[in-house]
Each structure stands twice: as structure tokens, then as C-alpha cells.
Design a protein that fits this description.
Two copies of one chain form a homodimer. By secondary structure, chain A is of the alpha+beta class. Chain A has 15 helices and 27 strands. The longest helix of chain A is centred in the last third of the chain and has 21 residues, at 456-476. Chain A is globular.
Chain lengths: 664, 664
């Protein structure tokens, strides 16, 4: 947290976590579908409303300072109160400064400006419940004129690359998918326009089923920010702009001729793309054009889904999901290596203590949160952050331990969602894959507790639990006959799926002999149902890479991600099934355009290519030491730059010779 | 809660408690002192941001309904989603309706309108953490056009009754103290006015030390709502309108002649008094003019302090305090008999579980909250409310039981404020008065648990704890030599104050023999320091009445409250010491105008007169049965009407004959 803190810079400060919880709530309440809102269906955690900030100074001479805040409150210097926004003179000598702030609509934050007295992480924050704690801050908020409740997007203007008269309107196309505010100007003033947005051409042209449609603001011509690749502009029609979901399906086609057509030359459209500026630090160019395109589209997909937080998709859900975010950490590490979006996302996900429900209501997503802290640490060596959240790791583990059955296996309670994947898992009794995640959590607690120098008793206890759980998993779930782990030992069905077996490889639950059996009996066994989501495909590819099947993985990347490109994808999709007809390819969840066409979890080729083919691995996150084990034999040539902590590693392969080094 | 619910009326509904917590935060953040805000210095509890409301219907025929909400969300009917504000058609048959709502700035609330499907307490609310619970509502919010985040005040216009040129401005006086928006119109347009408000003439004329001063809005001439009896209007002067507290005391006098004077004939002033309309149901007229005036001023004081909640005072603190509110319950019972302000106040005070700090940070104020539920029940028989809050009573008691010392006595933890009164108590170790409150809490838990039919084990356990604690109090704190209870048995100082001894009478910790000793050795012993606050004087008078010293109490009321009237009070003060010089009479907390001149806890004569002199006591709150034991021998004549639940009791005494009865 404090690592990048500049000296003598004033920061906006708040109670730690409040910034993330507030913006997460805004993010999770931003989903819209055909005119109605869909706030995320889990516990939405509150920021604090009443906070005190304190700092003591030993002043050698008189000094003055200002405190700014949009909250209700005052500054207390010793026992004298001052309003915000006025010069305050104090010193010399010992001076206790406290700032009292209350705010209902958003979290209280303050900005203290002065030569000697100014706000940064050396201030303590109090919430009238817990012991004082280091104030929260963010590198992006260092100017008095800023408002930490407003996230500052960068903007870039995109003009349409196509304009086509379709039925009674005009279909505008952009070069790629954007998260944009559309601005529409009509040369005629005698009509009201409506804009229908789509991630696909088909969606934009389907007035009834497209997710987002807007009436441009009368004064500015602007629409609400949303995901858009195509925009269909037509005259407003009450039947479509005021769609009653009861009528779903009745208005699927356009009805040309009934209204006056809107013509391309009458309309000016621009898209103001709004994004969070996180620089990409990787470059990848190989002799394989398809792989290059996959990298590039994955990069665009991932950047769109990396805003204030890692979100799942930019059209839908726009929510922060713990499992999705965990995968994003791995792509981030090799693409942007931005530690702050990790921190923001992880603070947002975890919420406040006491923990009362699982993250996103999903048991496994709570467990991924623990693993995320490890992934974050291993990428950036950010021990300050681990220190900050370790107490919440412990209380999360405590919460999980309230739901163990007789063998110490974790089970879902009423209301818990035991997810793992959209797949036919045998979920009777304790589910094997959950145990493997849980075991990895115990291992993480031991590892990170040790790094923090936590007391040996606590770490020892986690280590013992890890060993016991791992042993029990092998005793109850390993089926020697099948040479694989089964989903459930309770049901008696001995159902084998890929999921637990993949985790057994990734988390070292299986020994080397078992791993070989798993590859043969499960991963290379066509009778075991295939993984259908790019989400779990990430883990499968990771496991196959770990087991050395790089050529196979490269082929699958070319097939699966290349398949989406062949269908015209400019961003990677939430799901892709090559066997589905083109007309139905955007259908999901029983919704014609339900599928998200820009989904973070589909960006995993970046991680796979960087981690296993370029072969870069950080070995010591604190010192930034790394090892490079390239497997570039599948490429005729390759030029690549990857981040490793603060360093930039370049690798150059011409088919014969490999060169590499560090850039500044 | 449901008792007054009308049939077929739509109510705004929300998660129970959210309405109170939101408005309480607004109330507790509304304190202003000389230009800076002072949000209450305790844990300010959040309302929920994400709520679902659910209801199932068995519809005999098709029906339609609308859902309205300012939140983000949608309506789910079976598995179909609808936006807010549109007609929804459903049925016949079984129909599950749920409404999903998210809001950051305020609590989510919804309004469902339809012939068959409409919102009221039959809907359940969920917060994604706790089991479903009956939705919250308020009788005041039954119209679609309302916004439950906005409290609707009634307004009454007051014109000044005096206008007096003072120095360079005009001092306007109102007939009494108000909570008002001032509206100022200046016939000249070449200057900027500033208004300085005061509860006293002296405060309004003291530009530097008055609490509230405003620059009227340029367009409307209006100022912010505040406590005001006098308003001094002068030309704006940077030195005063922008007072730096560093300069306190340097600007205490007006400097006439330096600026152009504002003249009375140039200015129009009106006060828009804003109040919560709670009808007064009592009338009191006796042969004793002073007592009549005391009743009348107490009534005005109490009504001003009874807004959305019972607050302590209207200028300062404007906060909701548990101890103050407890006393207000008793006055309310005999003056307005409004159960809803009790409920609002008690829900606001208690906040959410888990409890992490004491109410208002004060140990005794947590305990009064338990006693308040009993007082509320005994006044209104409101078992629905008791049922609603009993779980929070149990968790509050659990929280208290975490801080018992070896004898089972309750002690303060670090950060707890052990208050009892502004008095010189011996607070070493466990304080006697706190134990007596705590014992009364155990008795309350037993009583109310029994009324609710809670399991015998729980109630039995509270009863045992009550008996044990009462026995221990008498063993450790009763000092047979002094014939009184001592503050502390740890210090060895055997310090006797009135406080614990008063509680011993009120809560029956003392037996009849001990009570008589207490009156003699403490209450009638001039060597024991007098109570200095009207707050604790309430308990002292109550105890004296209980012991039959009515004549003495009447005399003290005439002296103490009559003393304030003699000093010009139009509302009763936070504190009054007859020995203080007139020039210093508004001074408190080291602040020249720090004393609140309109303070709820000073309205207790209403309770004392009604309860002991008219002698009305509700004996069965559920049936509304009461007993009347009048002691009107101190009056030549008296006409009085008092509420008793839904009934109105009238009493008429002409010095010879007493008549009484019920009115409708």
C-alpha cells in the first residue's frame, strides 16, 4: 500500500476499504437489461458514514494547514474546533490534530494541505468500532480539486467506421467493441431519435431484444455509458422504447415503411470511449498470425473488463465476481502488472467483518479470494497489502470452518451456492473440487502467515489442517479403480468430471503418479464430458501446461479462440460452442442476446502464452527475481516483452537463437 | 407495528429499521456550531443498500399492479422481469412476486399499487444476510408521490412580535422559541445581509458567539432551518460571517457606526416554523397559575424536542441520546401518547447487530434502551414491537454480559463512557448505579420474555441473574452504617451520592425499610450534594413521589422550574442553577452560549403532575385498563384531560368534589 507513496504529497484519505466498497456498489448496481436495473444479488456492503482521522505532530515552528472535505464535520486541534476550508495556524510544540467527518450518501474523505501537516497514510482512521487503523488512500487521488466518490475515466473519441441504411434507420459500426457514451446529432429537429446498441450487428438491429437502448439527451445528444460495437439509430417508437417484457418476442423484427426513415447523411454519431488508464506493459509478436491475433483480441477484451475493478463482462453482468477476478489476476500479471486494480478488486470483494455470507454467495468464490491474495503476493511481493487483509483472511477461514461436516470437508449451507462451473457435477454431500480449493486455502494461510511472521501456533494449526484435509481428500475421493478423483463419495455414483482432477494437478493434491493417471483417465479421455466454459478451460489449459502438454494447449487455443475469431469476434466471449449454429451463437441463459461477447475470463491465452511458452515465472516476488524457461519451439520466430514486477523482460527468438534481457 | 395498518392501503415499505437508521443519521449529522458541523461522535449505523421484497399471492383472476421506487432494480413475477413504473399483468393462480432494489445514497424503498397486489407489512424483506423478516413501514408514508427519505414537516408562519434597532442592525423577537427557516427580504438591494440567531436576546446580538448565523439565499431570502427565538439582522461583515475560531472572544461586541445601519422598516422577516405534527392529547388547568405556566412551557419544550425522534435539544446537540429518550417516553405517555415516535427513536438508537459499542458510547444508555422497551410496552401494550426488538434486546444483554467482573457486576471497558450524571461519583471499579440499571434490565428481560411466551429457560435464566445481582448489590454496596448505598466498594471511600439511592427506590433494589432510610439519610440529607441537572432531578422527583413526598415535589417544581420562568424562559433549559448570575446563565461546557435553552429532559413536570398528582397509571397496557389515585389536595381546583392508550381520561376537581370519566 505505502510502497508508491510520494513524499510531501497530500492524498485524499478515507477509512481503508471505504473507497473500494463504495465504488464496488456503484459498479454492482450498474447492470441494466432492457430498461430495468439489476443490482447484484448478494450482500452489498456499506462504507462507513462517520469517521475520525488523527495524527500527532511535533512542530519545531508555527505552521498552517487547510482541511477540505465534502462531508459534514470539523477539525479539532488540541481542544479547539475549526471549520473545513479555512487556514488553521498551530504550533510550535506537540499538536494533536483530528478531523471529524460524517457523510450519508458516500464515504467521508478528507484532504489536508500544508507544508508540514498534510494527509497521507501516516494518518490513522477510526470508525467508532474498531481500533485505529492506517488511513486508506489511492495514488489516483492527490489533488484538492478531486472527488474520491467520482472515478475519473480517460476518454477517447471513436467515429463509426460504417454507416448503413437498414429498414427505417441507420446501423453504425465501430472498429471494435467499446464502453462508450454515444453522442448523436440529428440534422432534423422534427423527430425524436432512439439508439439501440449491440455487441453484435444482430443485437443492435433487434429493437426488442437488445440490452441497451437510449433516447439521446435533448440538449447534449448524449446517451448513458454502455457496451457498444454497433448502434442502430431510428425514430423513436413507443412500442420499442417502452418495451413491456410481457411482450417479449412479439417485436423481434423491424417494420419498415411505417415510420419515416432515418437516413445516414442526417445523423452524426460519435462514441466517447471511457476507460481506466492502466498501461499495457506486454508486447507479443510471433510468426503465427492467428496466435498474434488471439493475443491482441485477448488484450483488448481484458482491458475493457479492467476498469475500477476486474469485472466479468462489459455488457453483462458488469459485476465483480470472486472466481472471475482470480483468473484476471493471472492475466494482469503478464499484461499490465498493475497491483492496484488487484487491491481494489480484492478489498471490494471481501467487504466488512463479520462475514455473514459467501463472496457473491458462492462458496468457491470465498475460497478463491484467499487464493487471490497468494496470487497477488506472488506477483508483486506486496506484503503491506497481505498484512492489511490477513485478519480478514483469518475471519473468512473461520467462517468456512463453521460449515465442515464430520470428516472436516466443507459443505454448502442453505443459501450457499456451490458452483465450481456450469457443468454436470455430482453435488450430493461434500463436493471434491471444493475440498481441493479449501486445502489450497490452508496452504495459503500457512505460507502467507509465515511471510508475515504470524505466530507459529496459528500457522502450525493451518499446516496441520492442510495435511489432514489433503490426506482425507485422497482417502475419500481418489478412486483407484477409475484412476481419478470422483465428485462425491456420498452419492455412491463415483461420478468423474474434469474439475476436481484439474485442481488436483494445479494444487498438488495428487502425487506425481496420480497426476499421470489423471491426464490419461480424465483429461485425455473423450468419454469424460468436455469443459464448456472458457472459465474452467483456463484451469484445464493451466493443468495441461503444467503437465507439459504445450503443443496440445497451443492447438486448443488456435481451435477454440481461433474459432471465435472465425465467427467475427473482436473481443472474446463468455462461452463458445463450435457446434452451435451461427444464428444462435449469441444465445445464453435462454436469452437471444444473453451471451456476453466481451468477457474477462476468455483472455487467458495471454497468461498461458506468457507463463508457459515464453516461460516467465517470478520466483521471488519481494526481490523481483524470476526464471525464464521458454518453450518457443512451436514458433518460427517470436518477439515479446513482459513485465516482471517493476522490470520489463524482453525475449527474442528467431527460430535458432534465443536472446533475452531486462529493459528499464 | 401492524396495529394501525389500514386495509387496502398501499404503504411504502423498506427493510425494517432502515427508515429510522437513515433519518437518525441525518438527525445526528445536523448539529452545527458557528459554521462547522459536528456529526455525533458514535458509531453511525448504516441502512442496507440492497434489499429484496417478496410476497406470494393466490389469485382468483387476472390482476394488474405497478411498482414504484427511486432505487435501481426490477420486479420479478415468477421468472419474468419488469421495470419499475409500468403496469404488470398476472394471474390467475399462484404468483410469486419479488422486487429487487439497490440504492447507495439512501435506503431502498418500494411502493406497490394495485387492487389485489399492493405493499404493506404482509410483504417480507431480505437483506442477503438474515432470514426474511416483515417489511418495515410507517403510517406517514402511504402515497405514491411521497419519498420516504424526506421527512415531511408541517409548517406554520410566525411573524416577529418585536423589532428593535440595536447598534448597526435590527433585533427581531418571536413570541417563543421555534425551529424555523427564516425568510428575510430587504427593501434595499445594494448590500448583503447576515442573520444571527439566538435562543436568547444576548446570543443573537453576539455575532461572534452565537451558534447559528446565515447569509440568506439570494433568490429566496431563506436561511437554513435552526433553533431561533431572536434574529439579529445586519449588513454582512467578513469578520463575523467568516469567523475563525482562533479569534474567539475578539469580536464579542458590536461596532456601530463603522458600517451602514440596517433599519427596521427596511427589512421583512418571517419564521417558517417546521415541526412534526404529533397532536397533544392532554390539557391541564389548575388554580395554581405558576404550575399552569410550568405545564404549558414544558409542553412547548417537549413538542419542540419531539421531531422525527426524541432529541435532547433543538439548538444543541440535536442528537438522539438513549438516556434522554428514556425520560421522554414518560412525558410522551401523558402528553401525546404517541407510540410511533417511541418506535422510531428506539429503532434508531439500537442500530444493527452485531453490537460493537454502547449506545451513544455510554454504558448506562445501552441499559436505558432495555428499560425503554418496558416503558413503551407498559404505556401502549405494543407487543408487536416488543416481538420485533426482543432479539436485539437479547444481543444487547449478551454484549453487556461480556463485561462483567468477578462478582457479576458490569464495568466499563476501554472507550466506554460510564456516565450516570454530571456529578462527582466515585467511579473506581464497578459503579453502584450501573448495577441497579443492569438488574432492572434483567427484570425487564424476564417480564417481556414472559409476555412474548419466550422459552422458560431463557426467562428463568434472566430471573436467576436478576435475583443474584440484586442480592450482590445489597451485599457489596449497601452500607448499613451510612444507611445508604455507596458508589463503589472497591475504592474504600464509601462515597454516598443520591444517584444509586434514587435508583434503589425506583427499581426496588431496596426493601421498604431501606427505602425509608434512604429518604432520611440521602434524599433529605443536605450534606449529600444536590442533583444539579434536570435530567437526574427527574429520577429524584420520581423517587420522592413514589415515597409519598408530593408536597415537597410540588414545592421543588415551583422553585426550580418556576425559577427558570422568572428568568424569562419560554422553554425549559438543559441546566439551571439559581445561584448563577444572570450574565452567566447561558454559559455551559465553558461556552458563553453553550447551554441549550430548550431541552427535552426538563419537561418532566408533565409526567410528575399527571402520574402522581392527577394520579393516572395504566395497569394493563394490553386492555388499556388504568387506575386513578388523585392527590389534588394541593390545588384549589383542577381540570385535566390525559391520554390512557386510546382513551381520554378527564378529571375535574373543584376543591370539594372529584369527578372523572372517559371521553371518546
Amino acid at each position: 500500500m505505502g510502497a508508491f507513496m510520494s513524499r510531501n504529497t497530500s492524498y485524499w484519505i478515507w477509512y481503508p476499504g471505504d473507497f473500494e466498497l463504495y465504488h464496488a456498489m456503484r459498479q454492482n448496481f450498474s447492470r441494466v437489461e432492457r430498461g430495468y436495473g439489476w443490482p447484484a444479488f448478494w450482500k452489498s456492503e456499506g462504507f462507513r458514514n462517520r469517521v475520525a482521522f488523527r495524527r500527532e505532530y511535533e512542530l519545531t515552528e508555527e505552521t498552517s494547514f487547510y482541511v477540505y472535505s465534502a462531508a459534514v464535520g470539523h477539525v479539532l486541534v488540541e481542544d479547539r474546533k475549526y471549520p473545513f476550508g479555512r487556514s488553521i495556524l498551530c504550533g510550535p510544540g506537540k499538536v494533536r490534530v483530528s478531523v471529524h467527518a460524517g457523510c450519508i450518501e458516500t464515504f467521508p474523505s478528507i484532504y489536508v494541505e500544508g507544508d508540514v501537516i498534510y494527509s497521507n497514510h501516516t494518518w490513522m482512521a477510526e470508525d467508532y468500532t474498531n481500533p485505529p487503523i492506517m488511513a486508506g488512500f489511492n495514488e489516483r487521488y492527490t489533488e484538492k480539486s478531486q472527488n474520491p466518490s467520482v472515478w475519473e475515466y480517460k476518454e477517447e473519441i471513436y467515429l463509426p467506421v460504417s454507416a448503413e441504411a437498414c429498414a427505417d434507420g441507420v446501423l453504425f459500426g465501430f472498429e471494435t467493441e467499446l464502453t462508450a457514451v454515444l453522442e448523436i446529432h440529428d440534422s432534423r429537429e422534427d423527430r425524436q431519435l432512439r439508439v439501440y446498441c449491440g455487441e453484435s450487428r444482430e443485437e443492435a438491429l433487434d429493437r426488442a431484444h437488445c440490452y441497451y437502448s437510449w433516447t439521446p439527451d435533448a440538449r447534449t445528444g448524449r446517451c448513458q455509458r454502455c457496451a457498444v460495437r454497433y448502434a442502430f439509430v431510428a425514430e423513436e417508437d413507443q412500442a420499442y422504447s417502452d418495451i413491456s417484457p410481457c411482450l417479449h418476442g412479439d417485436f423481434g423484427t423491424n417494420v419498415p415503411g411505417k415510420r419515416k426513415s432515418v437516413l445516414p447523411e442526417e445523423i452524426e454519431v460519435k462514441a466517447i470511449h471511457q476507460y481506466t488508464d492502466i498501461p499495457v506493459r506486454a508486447q507479443f509478436t510471433s510468426s503465427d498470425g492467428l496466435i498474434n491475433r488471439i493475443w491482441s483480441v485477448a488484450e483488448h477484451t481484458f482491458r475493457l473488463c479492467s476498469g475500477i475493478f476486474f469485472i466479468d463482462g462489459i455488457k453483462r453482468d458488469k459485476w465483480i465476481w470472486g472466481g472471475d477476478a482470480y483468473q484476471s489476476l493471472f492475466v494482469n500479471q503478464y499484461l499490465m502488472a498493475d497491483a492496484d486494480i488487484n487491491r481494489r478488486t480484492l478489498l471490494a470483494l471481501r467487504g466488512n467483518d463479520p462475514m455473514t455470507t459467501h463472496i457473491n454467495t458462492i462458496l468457491d468464490y470465498s475460497l478463491y479470494w484467499i487464493l487471490s491474495i497468494k496470487a497477488h503476493y506472488e506477483a508483486y511481493g506486496d506484503l503491506d497489502f497481505v498484512e492489511q487483509v490477513y485478519p480478514k483472511m483469518v475471519t473468512l477461514m473461520d467462517f468456512c470452518e463453521e460449515q465442515l461436516e464430520e470428516h472436516g470437508f466443507i459443505t454448502g449451507r442453505a443459501g450457499d451456492w456451490v458452483f465450481i462451473d456450469w457443468a454436470d457435477l455430482d453435488k450430493e454431500g461434500a463436493l471434491c473440487a471444493e475440498q481441493m480449493l479449501f486445502a489450497e486455502c490452508y496452504r495459503t494461510m500457512t505460507l502467507l502467515g509465515g511471510r508475515l511472521g504470524k505466530d507459529a501456533f496459528l500457522c502450525g494449526s493451518y499446516r496441520q489442517k492442510y495435511e489432514a484435509l489433503k490426506k482425507n481428500i485422497n482417502a475419500f475421493y481418489w478412486n483407484a479403480g477409475r484412476g481419478a478423483y470422483i465428485d462425491s463419495f456420498v452419492s455412491g455414483r463415483e461420478h468423474v468430471t474434469r474439475h476436481a482432477n484439474i485442481f488436483a494437478i494445479l494444487f498438488d493434491i495428487a502425487d506425481e503418479r496420480q497426476k499421470v493417471q489423471i491426464v490419461q483417465n480424465v483429461l485425455h479421455n473423450e468419454e469424460i464430458p468436455q469443459i464448456t466454459t472458457p472459465y474452467f478451460k483456463f484451469y484445464e489449459m493451466d493443468a495441461l501446461c503444467k503437465m507439459g502438454y504445450l503443443e496440445e494447449v497451443l492447438e486448443r487455443i488456435r481451435e477454440y479462440w481461433g474459432g471465435m475469431l472465425a465467427r467475427g469476434a473482436v473481443t472474446f466471449w463468455e462461452e463458445y460452442d463450435p457446434s452451435v449454429q451461427q444464428e444462435e451463437q449469441y444465445d445464453m441463459y435462454g436469452d437471444k442476446f444473453g451471451k456476453s461477447l466481451c468477457h474477462a475470463w476468455s483472455a487467458s491465452p495471454i497468461y498461458l502464452l506468457a507463463r508457459y511458452f515464453v516461460g516467465l515465472k517470478i520466483t521471488d516476488p519481494v526481490s523481483g527475481n524470476y526464471e525464464l524457461c521458454p518453450h518457443l519451439e512451436y514458433f518460427d520466430s517470436l518477439e515479446c516483452v513482459l513485465p516482471a514486477g517493476d522490470k520489463q523482460i524482453w525475449v527474442s527468438w528467431d527460430g535458432k537463437e534465443l536472446k533475452f534481457g531486462e529493459k528499464q
